[in-house]
Amino acid sequence: MSPFSVGIMLRSQVVAKTMSRGMAAQVKAPIKLYSTEGRYATALYTVAAGQQQLPEADKDMQAIKKLLDTNKDFKNFVNSPLVNRIEKRKIMEEILKKVNVGPLTMNLFDALAENNRLSMTDNVVKSFQELMTAHKGEIVGKVTTAAAMDAATAQEVKKVLESFLKKGQTVQIETVVDPSIGGGMIVQVGDKYIDMSVATKKRKLDELLEMPV
């Protein structure tokens, strides 16, 4: 199944629980997120924006993030493979009712539970926050390097990332240190992905050398 088909399916799951398909305005997400958790977050974003309930959905997701950050039992629960899907779905519904989230957010997490993907909760929340950041004209630029960048390098990278932006947008730099890339860097700005890591260059060279002459 293509990413597009998966995205349509997820939006349909969220929409079908609250409204007929014809009632939703067609809303395009500010950036494309290609991961599975990104498509769940996009489903919530597009449905909430179409119903003019984006602030409410944002507030709900912030409340869930707070739970993840402050309640170890909740985080262990959503990540646990030991609780069966049906029971997990019921418990999650009870928790979200206590947090007083709206119906759209409730239905998103019901879809996650139904598909046995509550372990993605943390990343779904992060993906939704990324969409909201882009919605406000702020783009997250994720830069992965083998070692921490010094201030001068970080400033230079920021200038390069700003060249990708549209008028009125600003960029927030998120840095990740991953020694396994060997050197160079991997840059992701919105739906643009640039891999300049030594590890990838080496892999491509190895693949080239292994090709028959």
Which strand order do you get reading across the main beta sheet? 2-1-3-4
- Broad shape: globular
Mean pLDDT: 84
CATH evolutionary superfamily of the largest domain: N-terminal domain of the delta subunit of the F1F0-ATP synthase
Tally the helices.
9
Task: Report the radius of gyration as a whole number of Å.
Answer: 20 Å
Secondary structure tally: strands: 4
In the CATH hierarchy, the third-tier topology of the largest domain is known as Peroxidase, domain 1
Question: What portion of the residues fall into strands of 2 or more residues?
Answer: 5-15%
Q: What fraction, in percent, of the residue positions are helical?
A: 55-70%
Instruction: State the separation between the terminal residues, measured CA to CA.
Output: 36 Å
* Series of H and E elements: HHHHHHHEHEEEH
Report on the structure:
With 213 residues, the chain is of the alpha+beta class. The chain folds into two domains: 3-133, N-terminal domain of the delta subunit of the F1F0-ATP synthase (Peroxidase, domain 1, Orthogonal Bundle), CATH 1.10.520; 137-210, Glutaredoxin (3-Layer(aba) Sandwich), CATH 3.40.30. It has helices at 3-16, 36-50, 54-70, 72-79, 85-99, 103-114, 121-135, 151-162, 198-210, and strands spanning 138-145, 170-177, 185-189, 192-195. Strands 2-1-3-4 form a four-stranded mixed sheet, sandwiched between helices. The chain is globular and about 60 Å long.
